[in-house]
Structure formats: C-alpha cells, structure tokens
C-alpha cells in the first residue's frame, strides 16, 4: 500500500511541477504575483489558524468561537481608532493603542468564553463541548450585530502607505508585508513559548495527559486559560491586520475567515503550530494559483478537494504525526 | 386542580387569539418582506421605511376600501431558504398583499408560496429577469426596472461612451450578480465590437481578492464590470487601485449608493455604477425626503421611494378593483397608473414597471454624480 501512495504522490507532484514550470517560464511576473498573493492569503489564514490549533492541541476542542474572537479584535481596534482619531492623536500612537486594546479585549473574551462555555463541559462528551462552541459563536456574532451595527463599516488602514515603499507598493503593499512578517514572528514566538518556557512545558504535559499532569502538580485550569488567552491574542492581532488589508468589517467576518483557517489547521495537522502555518500557506498559495490559472468560481471547491485528498493519504494532516505530539 | 388551571389558561389564550383576529379583520395586512438585518440590511430597511410612510399617508387619507392598512415586517437576511420560511409565516399570519422581497434570489424562492396562496407581490428592488420574463410568476410586479434594461444601458455606455474594446466581467456567483453579468455578456455578444476577455465568479465575503485582481490585470481589460453588492465591490476596487491596475470599474445598482462610497473611501473615485433615475425634482419625492428626515432623522436610503411606490400601486389597484380578491386585484394592477415619487409609473403586461429606469453615475469627489 505504501509504495502506491508514494508513487501517486510523485505522479501528482510531477504533473503539477511540469505545469508550474511551464507557466513560470511563459509569464514569470504573473506567476510571482500569484505566488505573492497566495503567500499573503496564506498568512491571513495562518494568523487565525494558530489559535485554532493551540486550543485543539490542549483540549481537543474545535473552538468555533475563535473566528468571533478575531472579529471582536477588529471591532475593538476600529472603535478605539475612531475615538482616538477624533481626538486628533498621532497615527502611530493610535495604531499601537488600537492593537493593544484589541488584544486585551479579545483575551478577556477568550478567557471568559472558555470559563462559561467549555470549562463546565470538560468531562462531558466531546460533542457537547462542540455544540457549546457553535452556540458561543452564534451568540457573539449576534451580540456584536445588536450592540454595534449590522452594516459594513469602513476600516481605515492603521498602517500607512510609507513614501519610501511607494515604488514597490503595487507588488506588495505595506499592509501585506506586515501580515507576512507578523505571521512569521508570531509563529516563532509561539514555538519558543511552547518549547522553552515553563508554561510551555506545562502545556505540552497537559496536552499529553490532563489527569497525570494535575497529579504532578500542574494547575490544568490555569494552563488551559493561558492557552485561550494566547490564542485570542493572536486572533486579535490577525483581526486588526486583516481589517487593514480589506478595509472593512462587520459582525460576520469571523465566520468565513474562521472556516478557511480551520481547514488550514486541519490540513497542516491540527494541534501543531508549524503545521497550522504550513497548512495555511499551502491552502493560500494553491487557491491563488487555481484562481489565476483556472476558474475562480471553483476556488472553494478546490480548497476542499485538497483537504480531502490530503486527509485520505495523511489522516492527521501534513505535520500531524501521532497523538502525543500536540500543541 | 392543576388541569382546571390549564384548561382556563388554554381557553384564555384561545380567546386572545380570536380577539386579535377579530380586530385584524378591519385592516388590510401588507407583508413587507425583505432583509432588515445582516450586511444587506440598509437596502431592506430603506424599502421598509418607504412602506411604513406610504401606509401612514394612505391611512391618514382614509385607508383603502374603507379599511386601514397594516404593515407586517419580515426579515429574510437575504437568504432564499429563510425567505421561504418567512413567506410561509407571513401567509399564515394573514398577509393579504406583499411588498418584497429585496434580494432577487429570495423573491424567486418565496414567490411560490405567495402564488399558491393567491397573493399579489410587488417588489421594490428585485431586478432578476426571470421574475417577469419567465412567466412563472403571474402574481409578481415590481417598481424597479429589470436587469435586462440595466444590462442594455451598461453595455451601450461601455461601448459608446467609455469606448472600451476589452471588458472583464466579474460577479459574486449570486442570482443577482451572476444573472446581471450573463445579461451584459449577451448584450455585448449581440452588439459586437467589444471583446469579453474574462468572465469569472468570486466567493462573496472572502478575505483576499488579490488573485482575481491579478487576473484582471493580466487580461488587460479596459473596463471591469461587476455584478454583485457593495462590500465585495469595495474590496476589489481597493485592491485594483493599490495594485495599480489600469481598468475602469463599473457596477450595477447593487453598489450604487452612499454605502459603497463610504466603504471604499478615496478608492471609490472614478468608479461607475448604474442606478435608478434621479427623480429628485419630483414634488412628491421632495415632500417624502422631508418626511423621512423628520421621522428617522436621516436621508432616505436606496429603495425608499420604490418601497413607497409599491404600496401606492397596491392601494390604487385595490381601490380600482373595489376588492382585494386576487383575480380582481391582479387585473387592476395592469391598468393602474400612479403619481409615484419615481414619477408617473404603470405596469406592462409582464408586471414590469413603465416609467422608471436607470442612469449611469460616476463617483466624483466622493459622491455618485449622474453622467449620461
């Protein structure tokens, strides 16, 4: 069975490689533009997927409310930026304060959501927690819709178009660059947090065995709360950057973005931090190429087809190895 | 003991229902079906306000056939599956006339319910062709010109005024957007002289449209025509400008209005869109704008006047028919001529409006300004 898989994989890679190189030679600029676009799109997915994958790694829960935490981050930033803008503060100060407020707010929401909706269900069957997550997601969406507005709101980019960057801005805008850089930085920081810090060690232990960890003196509740807070912080940063990129937000943006990020996390191996980023990039870049060379109508169909194919051959995702190596 | 209480409670409840219906018999119920929440809410709310003000005006003047009108709002969130449920609810709650729905997809889905219940439907905003052209919706009328008329205007403007040789057609895969672009495609093919270099659909609400923008750039289309709504349009326009793609962006009435220029901000400059004729010199139009300002504290939205005209038409037809019986009311609709805020309008034998059309607008200094 194994050699059939390898053979099939090689055949697919060969065909894709052949067409890829042919298109690259035919119109290299277009190829690179699509690649860059895909990189940006993948980074956008990654910023949201990181939170999904961390939470799943610890408590095996698909946190459907994660997309809403991302939306709340963007909303908070918009409100803070508008108020400070009215007071005529400097744009750099506004940008920093907006991000700080967004992170603090989202963390508070993430923390509370876990305490209200997931903690009481920790010993319940996994399906109950999943339904609770979906309920939380709907609740937060409608809550923001009623408390704020159902309409799309313009979101002025917090990252200015720098004058020195103008000659290259049509290749990649400053916001897009910020998204890619932030994704890489966040991924590295998270990796270091998990690998080298005490809380990271506790996270890995909790992921392996909750009961055993509590027996050796790890406060499991604190570890889980910390995971939600860290995940929410990344979602908030993602929310602000993505809102800068698309220039608008409403209460519903978390849904589609969250769905795509979830696919990306599963693709990369849910529970694995580098896997989430890799899965997001694979998804983003392949979507971009598919739209560029084939039909954008079937972009989503294509995304799900990739997911199905990868899951057939690697049921735990690209980097998901075995159950014990999570977080 | 318990069961006696229960019985009394049930009886009381039954009584309450009966009395409610007893009162209701003295009014004519107009179901105002549309989208009043979600991202397309501004369209539905503008029409609903038109309906409400029209009902107030007509009731103040003595009502219709000696009865007062009553509005029953419904919200379909612009989703066809919800629209069907909502239509069933409106019908079972006793709606006798329908103004709506807002989104074409919803109107098509829900109209089966209304048709089976023998209810006349007038939409202020559903422009999809099949509603009147297919013959499947004999109970349907509208106070807005259909997409075909808009497509003709768009394509001839692109060819004769913008002098474009190549166009890209992009839509959001929805009933409204895709339908509009297919009509435009047919028009271009019939006219000749303009080459369609791209015909693509995109996922509405996506976080990133850079791939389609690169594709438009590669196609070297002089004009990009958009079939869809304002939020996706704004994202694409921003990226087109940021990536310095030299193409003129041109959309339909789904992106006509202040909500688009607000969202896209400085990037909206130079964008074209077709929208309903500017009737701001009509005296009734002016009067209604003042009323709206007084009641809601802001300027009327996109479909306010169309919504008003829907109720006017239904009321006038009912008076003419002397009844709200389906066959009589429907027959009277075809002969009804009203002085609406859109100007004097009537309906042709398919149910399409006569006398209200579209114009081309361009964003100049952040405002849509008529250019043809």
If you had to describe this structure to a student in words, what would you say it looks like?
The complex is a heterodimer of chains A (327) and B (372). Chain A has 327 residues and is mostly helical. Chain A has one domain (2-313): Orthogonal Bundle (ABC transporter involved in vitamin B12 uptake, BtuC), CATH 1.10.3470. Chain A contains twelve helices and two strands. Chain A has helices at 2-26, 28-59, 66-86, 91-118, 126-147, 174-196, 198-208, 210-215, 220-246, 253-268, 273-293, 299-313; strands at 153-154, 248-249. In chain A, strands 1-2 form a two-stranded antiparallel sheet. Chain A starts with a helix and ends in a 14-residue tail after the last helix. Chain B is of the alpha/beta class and 372 residues long. Chain B folds into two domains: 5-144 and 281-354, Response regulator (Rossmann fold); 148-270, Rossmann fold (3-Layer(aba) Sandwich), CATH 3.40.50. Chain B is built from 13 helices and 15 strands. In chain B, strands 7-6-8-9-10-14-15 form a seven-stranded mixed beta sheet, with helices on both faces. A five-stranded parallel beta sheet of chain B has the order 2-1-3-4-5, sandwiched between helices. In chain B, helix 2 (41-60) crosses helix 12 (304-321), helix 3 (80-92) runs parallel beside helix 4 (104-116) and helix 12 (304-321) crosses helix 13. Chain B is globular, with a radius of gyration of 22 Å. The A-B interface holds A 27, 30, 33-34, 36-38, 40-41, 44-45, 145, 150-154, 156, 169-170, 173, 242, 245-248, 250, 252-253, 256-257, 260, 284, 287-289, 291-292, 295-297, 299-300 and B 37-39, 41-42, 173, 200-203, 205-208, 210-215, 217-218, 230-231, 234-235, 238, 242-244, 259, 262-265, 267.
């Amino acid at each position: 069975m194994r050699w059939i898989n390898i053979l099939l994989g090689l055949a697919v890679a060969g065909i894709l490689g052949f067409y890829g190189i042919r298109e690259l030679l035919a119109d290299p600029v277009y190829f690179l533009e699509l690649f860059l676009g895909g990189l940006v799109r993948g980074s956008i997915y990654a910023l949201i997927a990181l939170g999904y994958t961390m939470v799943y790694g610890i408590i095996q829960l698909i946190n459907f409310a994660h997309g809403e935490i991302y939306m709340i981050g963007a909303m908070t930033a918009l409100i803070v930026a508008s108020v400070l803008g009215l007071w005529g503060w400097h744009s750099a100060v506004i940008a920093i304060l907006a991000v700080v407020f967004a992170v603090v707010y989202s963390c508070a929401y993430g923390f509370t959501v876990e305490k209200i909706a997931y903690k009481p269900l920790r010993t319940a069957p996994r399906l109950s927690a999943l339904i609770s997550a979906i309920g939380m997601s709907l609740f937060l969406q409608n809550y923001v819709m009623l408390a704020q507005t159902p309409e799309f709101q313009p979101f002025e980019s917090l990252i200015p178009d720098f004058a020195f960057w103008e000659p290259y801005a049509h290749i990649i805008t400053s916001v897009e660059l910020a998204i890619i850089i932030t994704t890489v930085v966040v991924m590295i920081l998270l990796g270091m947090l998990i690998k080298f810090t005490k809380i990271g060690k506790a996270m890995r232990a909790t992921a392996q065995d909750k009961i055993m960890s509590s027996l050796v003196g790890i406060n499991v509740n604190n570890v889980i709360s910390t995971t939600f807070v860290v995940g929410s912080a990344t979602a908030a940063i993602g929310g602000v950057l993505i809102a800068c990129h698309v220039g608008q937000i409403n209460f519903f943006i978390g849904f589609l973005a969250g769905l795509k990020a979830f696919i990306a996390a599963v693709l990369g191996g849910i529970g694995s931090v580098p896997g989430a980023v890799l899965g997001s990039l694979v998804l983003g870049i392949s979507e971009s190429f598919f739209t560029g060379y084939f039909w954008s109508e079937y972009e989503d169909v294509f995304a799900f087809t990739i997911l199905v194919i990868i899951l057939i051959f690697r049921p735990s995702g690209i980097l998901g190895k075995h159950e014990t190596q999570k977080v | 003991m318990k069961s006696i209480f229960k019985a009394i409670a049930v009886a009381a409840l039954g009584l309450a229902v009966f009395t409610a219906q007893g009162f209701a018999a003295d009014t004519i119920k107009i179901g105002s079906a549309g989208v009043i929440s979600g991202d397309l809410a501004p369209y539905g709310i503008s029409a609903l306000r038109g309906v409400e003000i029209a009902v107030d005006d007509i009731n103040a003047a003595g009502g219709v056939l000696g009865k007062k009108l009553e509005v029953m709002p419904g919200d379909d969130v612009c989703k066809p599956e919800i629209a069907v449920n909502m239509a069933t609810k409106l019908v079972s709650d006793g709606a006798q006339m329908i103004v709506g729905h807002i989104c074409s997809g919803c109107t098509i889905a829900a109209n089966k319910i209304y048709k089976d219940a023998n209810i006349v439907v007038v939409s202020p905003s559903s422009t999809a062709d099949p509603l009147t052209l297919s013959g499947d919706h004999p109970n349907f009328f509208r106070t807005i010109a259909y997409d075909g008329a808009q497509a003709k205007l768009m394509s001839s403007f692109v060819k004769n005024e913008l002098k474009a040789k190549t166009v890209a057609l992009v839509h959001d895969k929805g009933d409204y957007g895709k339908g509009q672009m297919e009509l435009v495609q047919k028009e271009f093919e019939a006219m000749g002289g303009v080459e369609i270099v791209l015909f693509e659909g995109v996922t509405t609400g996506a976080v990133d449209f850079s791939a389609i923008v690169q594709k438009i750039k590669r196609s070297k289309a002089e004009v990009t025509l958009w079939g869809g709504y304002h939020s996706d349009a704004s994202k694409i326009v921003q990226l087109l400008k940021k990536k310095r793609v030299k193409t003129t962006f041109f959309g339909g009435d789904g992106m006509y209005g202040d909500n688009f220029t607000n969202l896209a901000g400085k990037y909206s400059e130079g964008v074209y869109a077709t929208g309903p004729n500017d009737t701001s010199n009509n005296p009734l139009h002016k009067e209604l704008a003042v009323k709206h300002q007084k009641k809601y504290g802001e300027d009327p939205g996109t479909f306010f006047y169309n919504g008003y005209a829907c109720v006017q038409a239904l009321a006038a037809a009912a008076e003419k028919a002397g009844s709200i019986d389906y066959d009589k009311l429907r027959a009277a609709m075809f002969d009804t001529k009203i002085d609406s805020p859109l100007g004097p309008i009537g309906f042709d034998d398919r149910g399409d409006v006569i006398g209200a059309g579209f114009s081309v607008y361009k964003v100049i200094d952040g405002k849509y300004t008529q250019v043809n």
